[in-house]
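Predicting structure from sequence has reshaped protein science. With that in mind, we have picked out one protein's residues alongside their backbone shape tokens:
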Amino acid sequence: MNSDQRNQTMSKAADTGKSVHLSASAGSGKTRALKDRYLALLDVLDNRGLNIDQSVAITFTDKAAAEIKERVMRDLPEAMLKKIIRGRQDLRISTIHSFCMNLLKRYPLEAGLPPDFGVLDARDQASKIQKAIEDSLEESDREPELMAPLRGFTADELIGTVGFLLSIRSRLKRMEIDAGGPEGLLRAVRSGMGTEQAGAELTALISSAEWRALFMQMELFLRSQDNFYEECNGAGHGSLAAAQNVQTAYRISESLTPVYFTQKAEPRKKLPISRTKFRATRTFRYPVYEALYAHVQDALSRFLSAYRRAQAGYEAISLLRLFQRAEEHYQESKLREGLLDFDDLEIYAYRLLQGAEAPDILYWLDRKILHFLVDEFQDTSDIQWAILDKLTEEIFAGQGADKRMLPTLFVVGDEKQSIYRFREANYRLIESVRVKMEKNIPPESREILTLHRNFRSTPEIIETVNQVFTRLWEGSYQPSEADRTRHTGSVQLMELLPQGPGEGTAAPAEAAVLAQEIKKVVEQRSVIYEKDGGDWKTRSAGFGDCAVLIQSRTKLKEYEAALQREGIPYRVVGGIGFYEEDEVQAVMNVLFFLWNRDDRLALAAALKSPLFGLTDKDIFDLTQDNGNMVDALRRQRPAAWELLNGWRKNAGLAPLAKLIHLIINDTGASVRFGRRNPQAIFNLDKLLDTAREFDRRGYTTLQDFVEWVKNIRETEQREATADMNLPGFQGAVSIMTVHKAKGLEFPVVFLPGMNAQPKSLTTGPPAIIEDSNGAARMAIKDAASPVYDEMWERERAELLREHQRLLYVAMTRARDHLIMIGALAAGKTPAKQNSWLSFMHDASPQPLFQNARETAPAIMAYGYPESPPVTAPAPSPGPMQPLSAARVDRAVDVSAVKQNLLPVPAALSPEWKRATDFVDQSGEQGPEQLQGPGVPSISPLARGTVLHRCLEDFTTSGQYDLEGIMRELPEIDRAEGTEKEAFIAGAEAVLRSVTGNRDLAWVFERRPGAYSELPFLYKRGNDLVSGIIDRVVVKGNKGFVIDYKAIVIENDEALASWKDHYRPQIRIYCEAVKEIFKLSSVEGYLLFLDSSRLEPVIGA
């Protein structure tokens, strides 16, 4: 596909008079295609006098919705932009969940919901689900008939399986709605599992004359064989012939299985009675015995097979009933609080569109929405498409010609990038929608298009990807074409060789090789390309250009440790295990002890953490001192005890957020943990935010929070770590999962763990569900279930294909350079089965595999080209020129931050200080002069805290909750009614004056390069200074520091005095910002809130 063909395809995709199905490979511009079509639709709608909100774009993540909206806003005509800003019309670009919520908010009563319903906090979801499961099992224990098929399952297995079914409840509820309700779903499963047929087959089998005759004959024969009667369970044959019901017959059949089947449940080939030991009679000759044995074996096999099929069906029905009961409890617990979870938004929306009111609702929607655009369609689940299918019935029915504009559907996606099966994504839907379009929409009203020209990656990467997946997927893969033919990139595959017995040097650890290769990319000045307007320019790669994409977080800690050892700045994007991070655990252990002073384990863990830094010997000494660890701490470590005792006094009185703030501040936790890993600073900040939110939600005791966190841990919720999302940390290597990287691109991509085997392919899920044409099958994981084994083979094939697609997504995130690393296994299969490395070896992409060399002892490297390009000192010819420093986004110099965090040599006797320590305390004004207009009974400190917090919220979200913030401060919350009202009025007046001042708009503007409450650690001589700056604004190569002061300025003399008073503190702030952001100049200001005066103090 050349440029003209691509432009023609993009033009067709933007044709507003046709529905479009667009299949677009990675890097081919599918987001641009959607954006262009959306803009074209807005233009036509506006020109025809129709509302632009009649075009709706659906995405599947908030991030994607925000990105598309930003691109659209950037290209909107000015007149239309003014309409949107003035609130006359709006862009309807949202996630499917937001769309469903808006629909339900419009029709709450029809949906059976309270009009003011909210969305459940994900952190509270697990505890509600756990309780619902426990309640349902407790109820069900009193129903033997329900639980009988499940008697082979342990309590933990039942809890786990019901929990799994609740995790896929949107799928089950969609099936339930389609089947006409809970009983309809049970009927569908009975039908699909063939439970009734299997039961009838069993009954017919054991009641037949042939069955009875067969087993009676074998019993009679065994009587003639002396000792073999007992050895072959002759009596069991007779009992089986006389069995009156299926359960009895099964119990006896099980006792006969060793006679006829091996331990692997395979038919025995060798008869229990050999020819030499056979005792012939007039009636029984050996050939007769052989034939009789084969008939009995076959009858038992048919019986046991039918029984297991029936049992699998009974298990499925019982588990489904347990799920329905648990789901009912879960729903009740949410609706009592007027809450829904994200699954509910889809479930209730789909039920609404299927209910009695659906015709009227769909009629209204048909009038309100003319055009649907769906992004990343390969990630659509069955219930999401079922909702969209109802909404687009008119389009597929060929209706709407009478409207002022023909309704259309636009779907764009890439089957090769479908990697969300665990979220119920069904990649087959993109093909089924194409077929439906071709069948139902006339050719003149539709376009079926493809884009496979890649504008993202260098030719070396594209060629390697093409060869790998052409081999893996054969005829179903459409190779991509490289657009960047003038650029030279690289692909490397590094294999760490295993060490055999008596062999030489072993390969270094994979994490160590990863860190060394990242360092090499930067030190060797590998060339990367960036587009500057219409031209490409080159520069050397930095750490911020590198991304480490991992399949899972199993070895995340190893990778982090290796990067730390090499001094490489990094950030973990979307990490999980927040409450398992060292810094969070340390603070939580302090809280555990404050809550329960008998918790010696928590105390010991807190004391051993960097908060206090005690050694194992120190802890041992404390435990040996008369057995009372707390008393020993008071005597041996008075400083530590004073801290703990001070926090203990606050534990019952102060809000949780204040208590945690004291712990972090008093121990210098940000410094102690941050010197090893800057991410710790952000995690501690997130813990503080979590505590503030907890306070706002009305929880009042430390016990509430401790129990809440313990429940999160016990239910194995994986809370995300804090994102280091300051643009300043773009100078750090990004570590994230491939799933998190979906939709992103990076100049240099590293893929470690190439030889890892995915657990999903070795261990099946607790249950597998299949449904089609009104019949459903559901098999529970059970060693004796042939149905599960059969369904697992199909599911495993799907998971294998998705694992291959995950590699495709990972490789296509790379723009210029791709480095893959894998440790080979010892033995006959060094590349483990179904690992990414095995896929690479199966494909053997050329010329990558032609260029093999040992780059270090026990490390084999394949390169294409053999040596990656490095930046030349001279500019490249033509339009590609080195980027000027002014064009590079201003970012935090993380190496500078890390350097400031490094331990200072003990010989220098460093002093830990706060920026406020540089202010002269001797001449500090008294409270009566600090007090702004308001209520004398409320301290200036509390007043200042409230104003600061409100402005922090305003700069991040555009709004603030004054009363919610006040509730966090008991001093204000306990104030009398009139005093509190006066305080609120005064604070509101100040906030309105400041935030509404046009001259101050640049201070509070939400934009890249603007930061609120920016923490810093700055080494100034021998002092390590920490602080938090109220507001920092970076514009180009210049910075601005703004510090808020809740102080009344009476006259110019007082103003000059205050500026002199705080100048040392502002100077520290400016020095720190200049160093961290590497700016040429920084200006420092004091913003006096009560008078809305912004006064220059440093450099202005």
